[in-house]
Amino acid sequence: MKEYKTESIRNVALVSHSGAGKTMLAEALLHFSGVTTRLGSITDGTTASDFDEEEVRRQLSLYATVLPIEYNNHKINIIDTPGFTDFIGEEISALSVSDAALVLVDSVSGFEVGTEIAWNYCDKFNLPRFLVINKMDRDNANFIKALNSVKEVVETRLIPVQIPWGEEASFQAVIDLFSMKAFKAGGEVVDVPAEYLEEAQAANMELIESAAESSEALMEKYFEEGSLSSEEIMQGLAMGVQAGDFVLVFCSAGTSEIGLTPLMDAILTLLPSPADRPTVMAQGPVEKEELTCSDSSALAAYVWKTTADPFVGKQTYFRVVSGMIESDNRYWNQDQDSEERFGTVYVPQGKDMLPVKVIHSGDLGVVPKLSDTATGNTISDKAHPLILPLPEYPNALYRVAVFPMTQADSTKISPTLNRLCQEDMTLSWKNDPATRQTVLQGMGDQHIDVIIRRAKTKFQVNLLIDLPKVAYREAIRGEASAQYRHKKQSGGSGQFGEVHLTVLPSSEDFEFSNDIFGGSISSNYMPAIEKGIKAVMKEGVLVGFPISGIKVSVFDGKEHPVDSKPVAFEVAGREAFKLAFLKAKPVLFEPIMMVKVTVPDENMGDILGDMNTRRARVQGMDNNKGRSVINATVPLGEMLRYTTELRSMTGGRGVFDMEFSSYEMVPSHVTKEIVAARQKELEEK
Question: What is the 3-state secondary structure (H, E, C) of 198-252?
């Protein structure tokens, strides 16, 4: 592939709900432009975009894939993104390095949940976009109905620039309102049929008026002369699209390769090159700096994706925001405070890598085998280090406990999870000391399932998952005393220690006092007693969770001049503490989360009713652009699978966020259930 300068590059993301035809439209564009010799198939697993074995198995896009197309001396970097909401992180990463988007809508299903989410992220990144009504050759395809479904949700003005020639099986061409010609499969151009001429002429006038509205100069000329030249129409539409004043509407059928030529022409003519986009603010050595997308600017490349494969090695995908990156050079990673040696740099094309000498400003590239660089890092010059801002990713709220299947797997679990999390900005893991579990957090059950399978196929690590335990805390409400004598005689020197102690609630996590008068226990045994008590507090007494908010007073005991040893008093202190704890009205405290749920207005009643079943306390309700927002405090134990359940209740249109608020006492009836479950678990072991 030849080199392309910034002005000749277009970075365009394909986004939509799953199943709207992104992958096959990308496949059609590749075939139509001559990149591939035949049209791939999702069913056969032969598309250029979905090449990962898990994507082939599921027949579903899981990762963002770069597919460059050379067309009319320009390079269009098509980025095919997943449409399933569990993989929203890939879509966000792709949009963060795109300059525009094609938002696809299924001609039958209309504007779906995933499309709405993608549209909102395009707004967040301030991306110009086209709306493409796709799959016009499907049974029950309806262009007007699909377009109206979008108008009901979005506020942006939508202007059709094409109308379909037929629908369903009779869909044979798109009537292009720019050229007033009809484009059939394979790019064949014919005149507009007579039955569509009046409709096309009326739509063409609306298009010209919209172009004129983009600037005062064009508006004045339109009023004076009653028309605009083709160049002026394109100029006005480009200004309106790039300013976000309106969105142009196209139609297509990817698998039939209808509507591709005018779509690609419009991408080159109306969508911005990287040089046309707003400047980016980066953190420099002293202060923030404004970066212009130009080869002559200071180098700043954003790493938007990494893949770790034991056979291929680590691949680092980047976008050059400013400056240039050349093969066989050294660059600086300010985030990691390390220098990286770049070998040959490549242009990614699906699973293939095309070697190039230089990646120009605004282009996308990939480099293998970097040592320290991770997703989200910035590559720059050591003499002029820069850090680019990170896009905001949603919090991962779907949690599972992860266990190694075998002893061999247990030694590899940490490095494997680290490598997987380096690839995915919406994935994280931690060891929870309270529950003694390894907890993996993702965007949903499908996301976690893909990660577990990836660990097995790519890294040969077999993992099991289970519902994570809630990190309860044990405490007491009353005061109680107990004593315990530890006596062990088995020939030779024995063990002896007797401890009398009192436990009572405290505002501190733990207080320990030696209140013995008369020296019944030597003070040098006190550290051993405290050690035994702390060991129990770490393990818990009631259901096996850490104990906090307690004071222990040792007030009496006995020792033996020969047999007393620190280990004896450690055991005695431990057992005396257990007895006293169980007599001092033990209770459980649970983590309470501050939850914010955003749902369509029509789902408000169902959500409030469901919240009542989760022991929630609603703190307030609000309305934001036709969506209801509910703020509530909810026990974490009631929210473990809320991601899946909320999607089910709202048809996937509900979202929520939560963060830790406080610990509160568990109601007695719930405590009994938790204790019973714990006893059953111990019996099974």
Answer: HHHHHHHHHHHHHHHCCCHHHHHHHHHHCCCCHHHHHHHHHHHHHHCCEEEEEEC
Cross-strand pairs, 162:
176
**Number of CB atoms found within 10 A of residue 638's CB:** 19
User: 425-466: per-residue pLDDT in tens?
Assistant: 999 999 998 888 999 999 999 999 999 999 998 889 999 999
Tokens of 136: 């016009």
In this structure, the dihedral spanned by the alpha carbons of residues 358, 359, 361 and 366, taken in order and rounded to 10 degrees, is: -150
Residue found under tokens 């509507």: 259
pLDDT score, position 108: 94
Q: Is 90 exceeded by the pLDDT of residue 482?
A: yes
Contact (Cβ atoms closer than 8 angstroms) between residue 595 and residue 639? yes
Token code pair at residue 171: 């869909």
599: nearest Cα among 632, 635, 570:
632
Q: Which of 115, 97, 98, 96 is nearest to 106 (CA)?
A: 115
Q: Check the CA dihedral 192-198-199-204 and report its sign.
A: positive
Residue with tokens 């690839």: 423
- Distance of alpha carbon 146 from alpha carbon 561, whole angstroms: 91
The whole-angstrom separation of Cα 666 and Cα 671 is 6
Q: Are 323 and 274 contacting, i.e. CB atoms less than 8 angstroms apart?
A: no
Tokens linked to 587:
């209770």
Q: How far apart are CA 640 and CA 658, in angstroms?
A: 11
Fill in the amino acid letter for 203: A
Q: In 3-state terms, what secondary structure has residue 337?
A: coil
What is the C-alpha to C-alpha distance for residues 383 and 373, in angstroms, rounded to an integer? 18
| Residue type present at position 405 | M
* Amino acid in the structure at residue 8: S
Cα–Cα–Cα angle for 355, 357, 358, rounded to 5 degrees: 110
The DSSP annotation for 522-581 comes to: -GGGHHHHHHHHHHHHHH-SSSS--B-SEEEEEEEEE--TTTB-HHHHHHHHHHHHHHHH
Q: Give every strand in the sheet of 352-356, ordered side by side.
A: 338-342, 329-333, 378-380, 300-307, 315-322, 364-368, 345-349, 352-356
Lookup: tokens for 666: 């568990």
Q: Could you give the CA distance from residue 512 to residue 528 in angstroms, rounded to a whole number?
A: 12
Confidence of residue 310 (pLDDT cuts 50, 70, 90): low
The token duo for 211 is 């172009």
Query: pLDDT band at residue 422, thresholds of 50, 70 and 90?
Result: confident
